[in-house]
Amino acid sequence: MRGRLFRLVAATASLVLIAFLVPLALLVRDVAADRATAAATTAAQSLAPVVAAADKATVGLTLAQIQSTSRYPVTVFWPDGHLLGTPATRSHAVELAARGRSITVQAPGGREILIAVQGGAGGTSVVRTFVTDAQLRAGVARAWLILGLLGAGLLAVGLVVADRIARSMLGPVTALAALSHRLSAGDLDARVHPGGPSEIRDVGAALNHLAGRIADLLAGEREAAADLSHRLRTPLTALRLETETLRDPAEAERITAVVDALERTVTRIIQDTRHPHHRAGVHCDARQVLTERVEFWSALADEQDRAVTTTLPDGPLPVATGRDELAAAVDALLENVFAHTPEGTAFSVTLEAVSGGARIVVGDDGPGLPAGDLPARGRSTAASTGLGLDIARRTADTAGGTIDLGASPGGGAQISLTLPEPPATP
C-alpha cells in the first residue's frame, strides 16, 4: 500500500506540475522575446522623427548616440538607395517597408524590425534594427532552470508528505495484520492499540472486541466440556463397582479394561479442554494400538458373523500421536463400519509403513459411500452421537496427518488415516 500511494502521488504531482510549468515556461519565453522586441522597436522609433525632419549629418550624429547606448544595431535606408549606420542588406522586407508600412519579420538568426518614415525629401525612408535569437531568449534558460528546480522541489515535498501519510496508515494496518496472525495461532490474549485514521481505529477496536469475545466463548466451551467430563466420572465409578460383582473373572477383567480406557479418555478430555495444544514429543506404537483395538472389536464381529482380515507389519511402527488418541481414532473407524453396514459384512484392517509415517486403512464390503458425497459416512445420524469420523479427522489434523475417504476393492467404503512418524530425538 505504501508503494502504491507513493506512485499515485508521484504521478498526480507530476501531471499537475507539467500542466502548470510547461505553459509558464512558454509564457516566459514569449515575454522575453516581446521585451527584447519592444526595446529594439523603441530604439528605432526614437530615430524616426530625426530621419523625417533633419539632414543626413544630424541623423548620423543621432544614430551614433543611439547605438552607443543600445544593444541593437540600427540602419537607415534612404530613398535614394544609400544607407547610414550598421551595414545591412536591403531585403524584400525593407522594400515592403519603403512603401510606407512598418513591419516586424522573422529573419535568419533573429527578428528584423522595420519602421517606415514618411515626410522626408525624396520619399519614404526605412529605419531598421535587428534582434538576434540569443537576445530574444536572454534570461529564458535561467528562468526555466528556476522553474525546473521549483517543480522538482514541489514534487519532492509531495513525495515526502505521501510517504509520511503512507507510514501513518501502514503502521496500524500492519499491527492489525500481526494481531490477526497471533489470534489465528491461538494467542487469544493478543490485542492492538488502535491508531491511524478513524476507519482503521474502528477496525482495531472491533478486532480487539472480537478477540475478547472468542476468548470468552472458548473459555465457556472448555469449562462446559470439563464439567461434562467430570460428571462422567460418577457413572464410571458405578460401572467399576458393578464389574467387581461379576462372577466370571475373564469377563470382569475385560470390562474393567474398557472402563480404565474410558476413564483415561475422560481424563485426557479434561486436560485438553483446559490446555488445548498439541503435546510435542508424544508418540506411540501404531501396531500395538491397532492389535489391541482389533482384538476388542473382534468379539462384536464374531457375534455379527463378520469376517475380519488384519494385515500388520512385523515390527513396531511409531507414529506422532498419543496412545489414547490413536485408540479413539481407530475405534471411530471401526465403529463406523459396524454402524453403517449390515451384519455379516466383512471388513479389513491394514497397517502399513509409508514415507515419513504410517497409514491405517479400514475397508468393508458394504454398500459403500453415497455417490458424490464422500464425507456422508462421517456425519451424524439420529442414532449417533454426532461425532462421526470427526474424532479420527481431529487426530490426523493434530498430528499433522491426513484422512481420506474412498471406495474399497470390494465396492464398499475405505477410510485411510495417515500419520507422520515422531521427530527424531536430539
From TrEMBL:
<dbReference type="Pfam" id="PF02518">
    <property type="entry name" value="HATPase_c"/>
</dbReference>
<keyword id="KW-0904">Protein phosphatase</keyword>
<dbReference type="GO" id="GO:0016301">
    <property type="term" value="F:kinase activity"/>
</dbReference>
<feature type="domain" description="Histidine kinase">
    <location>
        <begin position="227"/>
        <end position="423"/>
    </location>
</feature>
<dbReference type="InterPro" id="IPR050980">
    <property type="entry name" value="2C_sensor_his_kinase"/>
</dbReference>
<protein>
    <recommendedName>
        <fullName>Signal transduction histidine-protein kinase/phosphatase MprB</fullName>
        <ecNumber>2.7.13.3</ecNumber>
    </recommendedName>
</protein>
<dbReference type="InterPro" id="IPR004358">
    <property type="entry name" value="Sig_transdc_His_kin-like_C"/>
</dbReference>
<feature type="region of interest" description="Disordered">
    <location>
        <begin position="406"/>
        <end position="426"/>
    </location>
</feature>
<dbReference type="InterPro" id="IPR036890">
    <property type="entry name" value="HATPase_C_sf"/>
</dbReference>
<dbReference type="InterPro" id="IPR003660">
    <property type="entry name" value="HAMP_dom"/>
</dbReference>
<keyword id="KW-0812">Transmembrane</keyword>
<keyword id="KW-0418">Kinase</keyword>
<dbReference type="InterPro" id="IPR003661">
    <property type="entry name" value="HisK_dim/P_dom"/>
</dbReference>
<keyword id="KW-0346">Stress response</keyword>
<keyword id="KW-0378">Hydrolase</keyword>
<keyword id="KW-0843">Virulence</keyword>
<keyword id="KW-0547">Nucleotide-binding</keyword>
<feature type="domain" description="HAMP">
    <location>
        <begin position="167"/>
        <end position="219"/>
    </location>
</feature>
<feature type="transmembrane region" description="Helical">
    <location>
        <begin position="143"/>
        <end position="162"/>
    </location>
</feature>
<dbReference type="InterPro" id="IPR005467">
    <property type="entry name" value="His_kinase_dom"/>
</dbReference>
<keyword id="KW-1003">Cell membrane</keyword>
<keyword id="KW-1133">Transmembrane helix</keyword>
<keyword id="KW-0464">Manganese</keyword>
<keyword id="KW-0067">ATP-binding</keyword>
<dbReference type="Pfam" id="PF00672">
    <property type="entry name" value="HAMP"/>
</dbReference>
<keyword id="KW-0472">Membrane</keyword>
<keyword id="KW-0902">Two-component regulatory system</keyword>
<keyword id="KW-0460">Magnesium</keyword>
<keyword id="KW-0808">Transferase</keyword>
<keyword id="KW-0597">Phosphoprotein</keyword>
<dbReference type="Pfam" id="PF00512">
    <property type="entry name" value="HisKA"/>
</dbReference>
<dbReference type="InterPro" id="IPR003594">
    <property type="entry name" value="HATPase_dom"/>
</dbReference>
<dbReference type="InterPro" id="IPR036097">
    <property type="entry name" value="HisK_dim/P_sf"/>
</dbReference>
